[in-house]
Amino acid sequence: MKTPLQDMLDGHSSEGELESQGTFRIDSVKASEKLEAFQLSHHGDYLVKFLQVACELLGGPFFLRIGVFHTTAVFSASTAHLSKLASLPGALLEGKAETNSLLDHFATGLRGCLATTKRADCFIDGKPFLRVKEGRTEWLGLPELSKPTSEVSLRFSRRSLLRGLKQSYLRADEHLALLERGRFYPSPILVDNRRIFQGWNRKLKHSRLSVANALGPFYLLEAYLEADSQLENIIVPDNNRQDFTFREKGIYKWAISQRTTRAEWKSPTLFRITHDPPNRSRRFRCGIALTVNSELEKMGCISFLIDGAHTDSKRIDLGIPGIHVIVSGSGLTTDLGQFQIVEDGLYKQRVRALKARLAPVSSFLKDMTGEVVDFIKEDKYQGIDPGMSRILAPEHKRALQKEADRISETLSLL
Predict the structure, then answer these.
(1) In 3-state terms, what secondary structure has residue 237?
(2) How does pLDDT run across 208-241, given as a tens digit for each residue?
(3) Comparing C-alpha atoms, which of 43, 46, 269, 246 is closest to residue 163?
(4) Which residues pair with 309 in a beta bridge?
(5) Which of 390, 398, 388 is nearest to 209 (CA)?
(6) In the chain, is it the N or the C terminus that has fewer CB atoms within a 10 Å radius of its CB?
(7) Average of per-residue pLDDT values in the chain
(8) How far apart are the C-alpha atoms of 320 and 110, rounded to whole Å?
(9) CA distance between the termini of the chain
């Protein structure tokens, strides 16, 4: 028996005729205006697109200067790759670019910046080659280049003095966008000559033991695993300043951290798995980068790196509680904003490959349960001698024991 609402819907759906004939056209100028306003979900994300451009051109340091009247981005580029920018006018006006390509990043960044800025001027070694203002594009041509590397600078003019004062004082949109998505960019990012924080978060939330003043949050594990046919190489910065003593167990070369002083204590790591130490600039080249935090939340987190910037993270059960995984997003489909991964067949295939690679990591953590429990009970990271927990107050001892039992029980289920 149909409800009154269903009868009403059926009645309306039967009215009118379906017309499938005719043609339509797209006004590229008006479409560009809409993309300026809606393609990127956050105002500062246009700078992330130029961060991806910098990654593709050379992958060197990215400099940002936030002023009252202008925001300026500066980075180095390989001269051999700059010739690709000759097709930029077509990509900007007609969308003629491949997904996640150099031209696509550049064109999306230019469209996105005009949602909040008045104009954009682009230079190579101080010589202008492109000006964009309110839908009008002036292509001046690439200058003749004889050096192996060149400097690319982009200047974005403010729409209003009030907004410029706010931005230069708060560094709101631009700074936060780079801090959020540039965390795993392979080289330093400097905002007004100050490096922004990159790599794993070393300021974790207070743990269950904070009230006991006995043990703060920490990482059980950091791991950097080799790439394979399913997972491409990525480069991630290493911000862990701890000293590790390396040991061998099974297929892994792993490290257990040495005790650190209280002054150095900042979300330390107990174990590290890696095939090779980081290079001189403290960067790991790997197929998978991951951490497992001491809180061991049920759902894991996965972030995909696309040309040095990571997409919105996805909450997913990866079989290891408290895990955060970074892998390449190359070849995956993104939405219009380009920072959300579409969960299609290729995405599911990559997640399956990832889970298969994580199985030995799960076994490793389970085997190390005894070491973890000893670490918690001895309170090794507090800058005091091992065994100091023996003279803690009774309530602190109970908190340590409870935390050790919780982690031991969780890891035993892996």
Answers:
(1) strand
(2) 655 444 556 788 899 999 998 888 999 999 888 7
(3) 43
(4) 306
(5) 398
(6) N
(7) 79
(8) 40
(9) 51
